[in-house]
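Database export, one record per block. Field names are fixed; values are copied verbatim from the stored entry.
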Amino acid sequence: MDMHPNAKLLTDFYSAFQRLDAEAMAACYAAEVRFSDPVFPMLQGSEAGDMWRMLAARARDFSLKFDDVSADDHSGSAHWVATYTFSQTGNTVVNDIQASFEFKDGKIVRHVDHFDLWRWARQALGPKGLLLGWTPLVRAAIRKQAAKGLAAHRKQEAK
């Protein structure tokens, strides 16, 4: 059975992710791509590729599995699970993610990852995440720290 070209694009994207090949991942995105997830709520254009570059560079004990890839001419979806060591605490995280996509001219123009941020915080941050990871204050702190890390990565890469 032939795979739809956009399903192949998603398969290529996640296969590159398994190899931590952020350049190949970014190449699947259109220049005007919009990305969002619970940690990075609104990235646009090169910010999205730079996020993957940062995450790939920081990855420790990383593995990724993906399945349920489907796509048509306009939209698609996939399920993926990333397992890694969170560098700030040394805790193991297993993040279960449902992704949705929109396509234009053979590229991803919109990518939205859905996952439970409280579940992630419980794993990544330990007791603090368990007790406070559901609160808006801690969620905002997680987002702020992630944005700060991405800004620093982008600044370093620009040198």
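Remark 1: The first strand starts at residue 29 and ends at 36.
Remark 2: The CA atoms of residues 32 and 45 lie 5 Å apart.
End of record.
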